[in-house]
Amino acid sequence: MTYSKLFEPGVIGGLELKNRIVMPAMGCSFAEASGEAGARMIKYYTDRARGGAGLIITEITRIDDETGVGTPNQLSVTNTHMVPQLNRLVEAVHAYDTKLFVQLHHPGNQTPSRLIGGKQPVSASNVTCRVIGEEPRALTTEEVEALVKKFVTGAVIAQKAGVDGVEIHGAHGYLVSQFLSPYTNKREDKYGGSFEGRMRFVTEIILGIKAYCGPKFPISVRINGNDFLEGGITKEEGIEIAKYLEKLGISCLNVSCGMYDSGATIIEPSYLPEGWKKDLAADIRKAVSIPVIAVNTIKHPCFAEALLEEGVSDFVGIARGFLADADWGIKAANGEDTLIRKCLGCMECFRILNDGLPLGCTLNPVLGREFEWGEEKLVKNGAGRKVAVIGGGPAGMQAAAVLAKRGFAVTLFEQNDRLGGTVNLASLPPNKGMLKEFVETQEAELNALGVTVKLNTPGTLEAVQASGAEAVFLTAGGNAVKPNLPGIEAAVTAEDVLAGKAELKGENVVIIGGGVTGLETAETYANDHKVTVVEMLDKVGGNLYPSVVMHLAQEIMKAGGTIAKGKALVEVKDGAVVVKDTKTEELTELPADTVVLAMGVRSNRADFDALKEAYGDNLILAGDSARPGQIYDALHSAYDRAFVFQAR
Prior knowledge:
Layout: E1 10-12, E2 15-17, E3 21-23, H1 39-50, E4 55-62, H2 83-94, E5 99-105, E6 122-123, E7 137-138, H3 141-160, E8 165-170, H4 175-180, H5 195-213, E9 219-224, H6 235-247, E10 252-256, H7 278-287, E11 292-295, H8 301-310, E12 315-317, H9 320-324, H10 328-333, H11 348-354, H12 370-373, E13 386-390, H13 394-405, E14 409-413, H14 423-426, H15 433-449, E15 452-454, H16 461-466, E16 471-474, E17 478-480, E18 492-493, H17 494-498, E19 508-512, H18 516-525, E20 530-535, H19 546-558, E21 562-565, E22 567-573, E23 576-581, E24 587-591, E25 594-597, E26 601-603, H20 608-615, E27 619-621, H21 631-644
Parallel strand pairs: 3-4, 3-12, 4-5, 5-8, 6-7, 8-9, 9-10, 10-11, 11-12, 13-14, 13-16, 14-15, 16-27, 18-25, 19-20, 19-25, 20-21
Antiparallel strand pairs: 1-2, 17-26, 22-23, 23-24
């Protein structure tokens, strides 16, 4: 498909852009400990420039070292020592005719004290961010004035490094947003009170940048079209803020929404569809004459094109799309939509970042490791030698793709009639359809790489030997855990239920296991049965991001289901299960017409002994066959083992 609007040149503040694709700012923690843009960060952004972005806006970039740290290893423009490396980043991005803005940022009350040396977070007022849970202190008038100068200094340093413009982060509940929003601004000095008072902080920053960087230096302001919080910026006030900022002479507006306290609206999980908030940008665009950039949970190029055709925005922000696939733009330009690894909305990227680690992605094993593990680093020494891969799930397909890129002749064996493994089942619960598209993308990758795929063919020793393989990757997934407990033979597995191999009988369904599989199975069937989820830990969801867990739990309970935490399965009886409280050891019976096991998987190592005897060190385990985990773990282990593989 041809996307004429998406690849039409555009202009922001006199700056010509090659297309309408913007990669907006996303915290990544890829900078050096000093705050400089090192090789890792430069490679990360360069790959997205090569991948088709017309404009890249850097991650949240620190303007204050005292109270303004947003993530570990955060890019910084706090002093001129940052200029040389930032200039190298600019040059690397410019090589692909991509422009670069630096986003100027201060987190305000949305940062924990541990990131700022134990100091109390600061804000417009002493309003606590419920997610962070630490009461901030209100900045004095003099401190606000000093921070204005730090924002301006950051812009001057960025300009000195050769960047094409700056963006002031005035959205998502960070410090500038905390001054703009009546939800967080309770001040009575010149920086609070009236609308003009709340606008004064950002006004002084903009005027200061113009004074020191010149009137033609592009300035973008990222704003909230809606805070989605009672007492916060409404849609109507978002429009007024946009009109006010235009009068100050800024170059463009970058429209987003939400803050930490408004949960899923700030970074959307899978249950919020593409374009769910497009009215925010569309209404602002109607009210102003300067260009509007907008993020709209865009996953597909055709949807981005439609937004431009509808006039929702002048430029489309492809954020997590560029995390999942650095080549999102170039694949769209080439009409290779199926080959784009499209963001699942699983929130793993944000969970990893919140754990204090550099950014990662479920679907992209290279993200953040481009400098060490990028495709340019692949040792292409396969020379047509034959390798077999057993298992056509995500791990098997990932391993096969990497091996094929290295020049090996790969045959993939899958015992079922289609590829995808248990991901085909995982795509069945509500809002999980993107998983089905991911399987289609992996299939397309294998086809483009010339991998031989044998469906309905178990990867037995005889089969792989007949293929002439000199090495074998065992990625056969896992088998559902069935504990040795009284009556357990009467239970069914969640996998069999989702696959239609087992029937949910009766009204009362008890699901044992409150991880992702248990919760999603409960959500799928809660409207047709009285569902109870039993979890032995004190929390459900495992490592799922909190907003995802909250949504699943709410959907289950909304349908009349219940969640019992701190309970361990003891026995399956006729019409009931016996569970034990993990603290008091008290036994309780729960009515159960059907018992569904969602207790995880054990590695499937069918034929392992025979394969090991025949292939020795040339038998490689990956995915659940090596260690059970989520899709993230399967893809990363498969990529890494195929990357370093050497036939012995």
